[in-house]
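User: Hi! Is it possible to get a structure for several chains at once, not just one? Here's what I have:
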Amino acid sequence: MAQPAVGLDLDRTAREALASRRGALVVLAMDGKVLALVNETIAQEKLPPGSVAKLVTAAAFMEERNVGPDHFLFCRGKGCWRAHGRIDLVSALAQSCSSTFYVLGSNLGEKNLERYFEETGFSPPEKKNLSSACGEGGLRISPLDLASFAVALANGGHLFRPYGGKLKNKKPRLIRALSWRPRTLEVLRAGMMLAISEGTAHKAFVPGTAIAGKTGTASRLDAPHRNYGWFLGFAPASRPRIAVCVLLNDATGYNEASSAARLVFSSFLKKEK
Ligand SMILES: [Zn+2]
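Assistant: Yes, the chains can be modeled jointly so their relative placement is included. Here is the combined structure:
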């Protein structure tokens, strides 16, 4: 697997991207090697992921029901931020259509969902509930584990334990290979590319290179009206070299996390040219 050139100061860029905000920023290579890790403590905290979990719900549904990009649902706007109407899985991911993912979750059932969350590094809630389908209801994951998941989405399903940098683990280790159909990974990638080009992750757009990304927002239980803002993604979308996970502890929504990711992507891609 190709490694990004040595000597890129991604750690500094990651620090600049977070600026003075509280949160974490993780950049991994395609075998889980740490290329940047800002705030190691926060990066290992298990937090509610919000809509980034929809990627797992979509994958679980496609795998269990053997469907792909031609599967359509209908969003009337109930429990969603708008009435999306007839919508396929790629657009549902790009638009983060909650109505779609609740329907997929209830079709699958809590037990099925939980299995997929566990195998992708999420900690399911103690009491099973269908809100997990949209990343709520007690589902948790750390920014570091979410970055590993982004690597797996980028590299064809290989979930690696992060290693190197300040981490204790110094060697790459495969945690598991997700046995998902290539078509499932393709739909997720397409949804994440559309999220960047015209969906909820558009703030991470970098001209000239296709990027894949997904945003999330989760309410903070300890601080009313404050949110965790998430972004996870990888670039270049067609031949990924890096995966990025951004968490902001005090976000108004998901745009700020996407903007921070954009700084990392643009710095990396500029140096790669
Ligand atoms: Zn919707």
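The mean pLDDT is 94. The longest strand covers residues 242-251.

User: Great, thank you!
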